[in-house]
Amino acid sequence: xxxxxxxxxxxxxxxxxxxxxxxxxxxxxxxxxxxxxxxxxxxxxxxxxxxxxxxxxxxxxxxxxxxxxxxxxxxxxxxxxxxxxxxxxxxxxxxxxxxxxxxxxxxxxxxxxxxxxxxxxxxxxxxxxxxxxxxxx
Length: 137
Hints:
The protein has one domain. It has a two-stranded antiparallel ribbon. It has helices at about 40-55, 65-70, 75-80, 90-95, 110-115, 120-135, and strands at about 10-15, 20-25. Helices cover about 50% and strands about 10% of the residues.
């Protein structure tokens, strides 16, 4: 076979059904190792969204049922679901908070809850900006 007739294809071995098989294409990049832990308020925000969705879909009747299923007080469920009262951009910012690699979380639930209890989203956004600025110092 001459140099001009040779065909080269990238291949690699991959695990399929408990066996190693030859697969055409480049080996996919290894996933990045994620370090640190999600901020507690990030987890609570995600839980609030999930609970809200369950109630909206009718999968769960109300806050009391969530409290019973999760073995927490109805007041605690209310506190968590109050995070859904935050302006959408604040909710997104909370969900995108960087992971905590050491020490305490940058934001705590009490700080965020005080913002959520403000009904005006413009005021919430101002309070959020102020809190973020304080944390940057």
